[in-house]
Amino acid sequence: MEEKHKKILQQNMTQLVKGLDLPDLYGALLKKDIFTKDMIDELQIAGIVQDQVRQLVQALETRGSRAFPLFLECLWETGQHGLAELLQTEAPTVPRPRPGCKSYKMESSPCGHCLIINNMEFKPESALRNRRGSNIDCEKLETRFKAINFIFEVKENLKESQIKQEMSALSKKDHSQYDCCVVIVLSHGTEVRHSGLPGAIYGVDGKHVTVHDLTLYLNGQNCPSLQEKPKLFFIQACGGDERDTGFEVSSDEAQPSTGGVDNQTDAIPTPFSNNFLSLLCEIDARASLPTQSDILVSYSTFPGYVSWRDTQAGSWYLETLERILKENAATDDLCSMLVMVNHHVSQNCAKGLYKQMPFSFNLLRKLLYFQTST
C-alpha cells in the first residue's frame, strides 16, 4: 500500500474504530480476495471489536497497492457510506459505485487485452483514401489504455482476412486471469445489410468485415474465458455517407465548436439505405441472445452517417473519448462517460455546417469502472 493511503487510514483510525461495521465487511473483503479465510478467522478472534478494527487496518497496509481502493469499494458495497466518504476525500481517484448497483469486477492486473486495428494506408485497388491523422488517435489511445492498466497491442494496415485472423487469435487467448477485453478499430466504414449490429469496417484491400461479425469472435460461445466479462468495442469509422446538418436550438444550448481546419470523413457510399426502424428490431432480436451479453459497441457516428476526422488533431470521437477517460475514469462508469462523449462531439461542426452524433449498443449487465492510479 502507498504511504499516502497508510497515512489516511492512520489519521482516521478513531473514526474507523468507532464506526466500522465488521460482520458484513469481512464477507466483502473475502470476496474481493483482500484477505484469505484464515486471515479473516484470525481477525475475528483478535478480541473486542475495537481491537479487531486496529488489527484489520494494520493487516490491510500489507496487502498491496490495490488494497486501499478495494477497501473503499467494500465500504460502499456494505452501506458504510459515511466512512467511505471520509476516506474518499483524501483519495478522489477511486470510483464510487452507486449504492445498490452492481459493477463488473475490474481488479486484475493487468485488467485485460486492448487490441487496436489502425488502417491508415489503403491499397490503390481499394479506391479508398489514406486516413491522415489516424496515427494521432492511436498514440493517444495507447497512452490512455495503458494508464487504465490494459495490455496494449497495435496492428496496422490490415486486409480484411488479416482483421479476421487477428480477431480469431484474440478469441483464442486465455483471458481467465483478466477481467475485460477491448477492441478499437480505426478505418473507413460503410452501411451494410445485416441481421445484428449495424455497420462494417474496411480492410486496406477494400473488402469489409461487419461489426456484428467482429463481436461474435468474443461472445460467450466463441471465447469461453471472457464469459460474464465486459467486451468493449470502439469503432472509429463511418456508418454510411449521409451528412448531418443539425437543427436550430436556443442560444444557451448551442455552444458550437468548429473542430479542426482540415476535416475528412471515413465514409464509403453504398447503393442502398436501410429502413432504420426494421434495423433496430432485427438488432434487438439478435442481441437478446445470451451469447451476446456483456458486450458494448460504441460507434463514432449514428448508422448511415459520416464520421469526421481532423487530419492534424485526430478524429472528433476518439480525441473526445480519450480526453473524457483521462478526466473522468477515476469517478464515473463507462456508460456515463459515453454520454459525456456524445455531448462534446455533438458540439463540433465540420466545414461550418456538418455535425456528428456518436452511437452505442449497450449489452452490459452491470456498471463498469476502469482501474485508475491512486
Tell me what the structure shows.
This protein has 374 residues and is of the alpha/beta class. It folds into 2 domains: 3-88, Death Domain, Fas (Orthogonal Bundle); 112-362, 3-Layer(aba) Sandwich (Rossmann fold), CATH 3.40.50. 36% of the residues lie in helices and 14% in strands. The chain has 13 helices and 12 strands. The protein has helices spanning 3-11, 13-19, 22-31, 37-44, 49-60, 67-77, 81-88, 134-147, 160-172, 211-216, 276-287, 316-328, 334-346; strands spanning 112-118, 150-156, 180-186, 189-190, 200-202, 208-210, 231-236, 263-265, 295-299, 308-310, 314-315, 359-362. The strands form 3 sheets. The chain has a 6-stranded mixed sheet, sandwiched between helices. A 3-stranded antiparallel sheet has the order 4-5-6. A 3-stranded antiparallel sheet has the order 8-10-11. The longest helix is centred in the middle third of the chain and has 14 residues, at 134-147. It is elongated and about 75 Å long. The termini are close together. Residues 239-261 and 267-290 have low confidence and may be disordered. GO terms for molecular function: cysteine-type endopeptidase activity. Residues 1-90 form the CARD domain. It comes from Nothobranchius furzeri.
Report the biggest beta sheet as strand number plus sense, adding barrel if it closes: 6 strands, mixed
Number of strands: 12
Helix and strand content put the structural class at alpha/beta
According to CATH, what is the class of the largest domain? Alpha Beta
Radius of gyration: 23 Å
Instruction: Please tell me the overall pLDDT.
Output: 78
| Domain module tally | 2
The general outline is elongated
Question: How far do the termini sit from each other?
Answer: 10 Å
Number of helices: 13
Q: What is the name of the CATH architecture of the largest domain?
A: 3-Layer(aba) Sandwich
Instruction: Classify the fold: give the CATH topology of the largest domain.
Output: Rossmann fold
N-to-C SSE string, H for helix and E for strand: HHHHHHHEHEHEEEEHEEHEEEHHE
Share of residues in strands = 5-15%
Fraction in helix:
25-40%
How do the strands line up in the largest sheet? 2-1-3-7-9-12
Low-confidence parts: 239-261, 267-290
